[in-house]
Amino acid sequence: MGFEGAAVDYDRFMGRYSEQLSAPFSDFAGVQQGQRVLDVGCGPGALTAELVARLGAAAVTGVEPSASYSAAARERFPGARIEMAAAGDLPFEDAEFDVALAQLVVHFMSDPVHDLREVARVVRPGGVVAACVWDHAGGTSPLSQFWKVLSTVDPDAHSESERPGTRRGQLGGYLAAAGLQEIAETVLTVRVLHPTFEDWWQPYVRGVGPVGAYIASLDDAGRLRLEHTLRFEMPPAPFEVTGSAWTARGTVPAQP
Asked: Which domain holds residue 174?
């Protein structure tokens, strides 16, 4: 997937969008003072930073399967607990947290229902599990323009539109199947202004995620062809990129 690179590369590529998503996502999940919160798939810490600012580092725990990203988050937030672990196998006791948030993670889960059930296990009865995923299938993610142009250059390239959670209603369905109750869904949208084409494009070539892996697979001529096509198709700079994310939350039921 290309998620073992430098954390700074992720920050420059997707962090510029996910950081803006963190505050409204935390609001939707009901994050507030006095809670113990788990950041699932925290990466280098886009959402973690928002949670630490709201609650203090001691109240925040993050889990991340990437060695480089978990190390970066641990260094960035020395007062928080950061564990290297996958969402489907969490190193925590039952009911340790009040809220668990999975920001831009579910579409990389091979079995979202299983993993969200495991996340719910570590949240207390009455607590909240929330998740959000970019609208790749509907064409309103921050990467949608890239994938649209790429489809004209390489019709066989696989976009992220078939990944879990990228369609309306999928996240709520996963949460319900994982045993959560009182499901609520919404759409969150962020906007980022790019002053130049280079400001937008250069992070794409750093090898992050499926996009970075695809670009890295091209030879020099292929990358140059793609860049030239994107330069022609993107709006004149400065231009704004918007990104919308399907978002859902559910409540952990009381124990029978």
From this structure: 7-137+160-190+244-251
